[in-house]
Amino acid sequence: MISTADFKNGLTIEVDHAIWRIVEFQHVKPGKGGAFVRSKLKNLRTGAVQDKTFRAGAKMEQAPIEKSTMQYLYEDGDNYVFMNTDTYEQLEIPGDHIQSELKFLKENMEVQVTLYNGEVLGIELPNTVTLDVTDTEPGIKGDTASGGSKPATLETGAIIQVPFFVKAGDKLIVNTVDSTYVSRA
């Protein structure tokens, strides 16, 4: 059991039969009445974000979240197969659990798989990945002063905005957090 005094960003708790990660929190001591904690929580199963208020000193269960490094092997129908790099055990994750991560997932990539009592909650990609450009419009010669961008399709099927000088066949470093171009590899 933990109390609201133990709150910190990133901590996982169980409230109302759901698993939540604390995104942000604030201890409030009004001039009149008891102190309370205002928090913003993210549901790890659904991804929904909710504001919740707790009495100061309220107790709740800490959710035992495990993270293990796994390597993405292949797609099997609607499932994606990952292998634990320590034990070589394989794990199938349904595609609807990792929908937003699929646009940057590439075979043999190592990711962090988040588990709660054996239940897969999702995966965390590295902050940046190196991917090939498969298709983009040719750049306009001399159009570098405008600092504009054009869409480019990556080998995983993701479409991101890139500078005009990028051409098909280039290797790019892409930020997976906000889906942006970082640099050429």
TrEMBL record:
<dbReference type="InterPro" id="IPR012340">
    <property type="entry name" value="NA-bd_OB-fold"/>
</dbReference>
<dbReference type="InterPro" id="IPR008991">
    <property type="entry name" value="Translation_prot_SH3-like_sf"/>
</dbReference>
<keyword id="KW-0648">Protein biosynthesis</keyword>
<protein>
    <recommendedName>
        <fullName>Elongation factor P</fullName>
    </recommendedName>
</protein>
<dbReference type="InterPro" id="IPR011768">
    <property type="entry name" value="Transl_elongation_fac_P"/>
</dbReference>
<dbReference type="GO" id="GO:0003746">
    <property type="term" value="F:translation elongation factor activity"/>
</dbReference>
<dbReference type="Pfam" id="PF08207">
    <property type="entry name" value="EFP_N"/>
</dbReference>
<keyword id="KW-0963">Cytoplasm</keyword>
<comment type="similarity">
    <text>Belongs to the elongation factor P family.</text>
</comment>
<dbReference type="Pfam" id="PF01132">
    <property type="entry name" value="EFP"/>
</dbReference>
<dbReference type="InterPro" id="IPR014722">
    <property type="entry name" value="Rib_uL2_dom2"/>
</dbReference>
<dbReference type="InterPro" id="IPR015365">
    <property type="entry name" value="Elong-fact-P_C"/>
</dbReference>
<dbReference type="InterPro" id="IPR013185">
    <property type="entry name" value="Transl_elong_KOW-like"/>
</dbReference>
<keyword id="KW-0251">Elongation factor</keyword>
<feature type="domain" description="Translation elongation factor P/YeiP central">
    <location>
        <begin position="67"/>
        <end position="121"/>
    </location>
</feature>
<dbReference type="Pfam" id="PF09285">
    <property type="entry name" value="Elong-fact-P_C"/>
</dbReference>
<comment type="function">
    <text>Involved in peptide bond synthesis. Stimulates efficient translation and peptide-bond synthesis on native or reconstituted 70S ribosomes in vitro. Probably functions indirectly by altering the affinity of the ribosome for aminoacyl-tRNA, thus increasing their reactivity as acceptors for peptidyl transferase.</text>
</comment>
<comment type="pathway">
    <text>Protein biosynthesis; polypeptide chain elongation.</text>
</comment>
<feature type="domain" description="Elongation factor P C-terminal">
    <location>
        <begin position="129"/>
        <end position="184"/>
    </location>
</feature>
<dbReference type="InterPro" id="IPR001059">
    <property type="entry name" value="Transl_elong_P/YeiP_cen"/>
</dbReference>
<dbReference type="InterPro" id="IPR013852">
    <property type="entry name" value="Transl_elong_P/YeiP_CS"/>
</dbReference>
<dbReference type="InterPro" id="IPR020599">
    <property type="entry name" value="Transl_elong_fac_P/YeiP"/>
</dbReference>
